[in-house]
Amino acid sequence: MAEYYTPAIVLRKDVKNDKDSLYILYTRSLGKISAIAKSARKITSKLSGHLSPGRIADIRLIDKGSFQLLDALSKNGGRSNKEIAKFLYFLDNMTPYNQADPHLWYIAKEVVERLEVEPIVYREILGIMGFAPIEKNVLLKCNRCKKIGTQTQYFIMSDLVFLCANCLKDVKIEENDLVKIV
Q: Is 151 contained in some domain?
């Protein structure tokens, strides 16, 4: 049974049982993990206030085959907006479990602290993950029309493809599944 103390960004919170919560966290030292917080849904719980999505918290957890949250102390006020919610959704869907990446951690932490996301941040993260060239001046090719251009480009998470603005008009896609990268 290992014990960890690490900073984490709360990506998502789900109901586990009557009194428990399941948290999806992106941590500096462990990457993306899921952790159960026992009795976090009780009215007397001290954990739930520190673990709302969008908060950065110092967490203490143990690994007993699955992670269990023991303590949490949030650092920021937990303010969130539509941009940050979309960014958290992006991180949750695009990052694999148990793969720590310090560069990605510091980018995500800065975005959550500033409460704003520039399209170039999505491109940088996609570059770190190997989906796009890391160099910012390299133009991307639309997966539909195959044109390489300077116009606005988007990344569709469900299909892992890049589309230009013209091709995006012909595709029906949920707003949460789409990020502007240029």
A: no
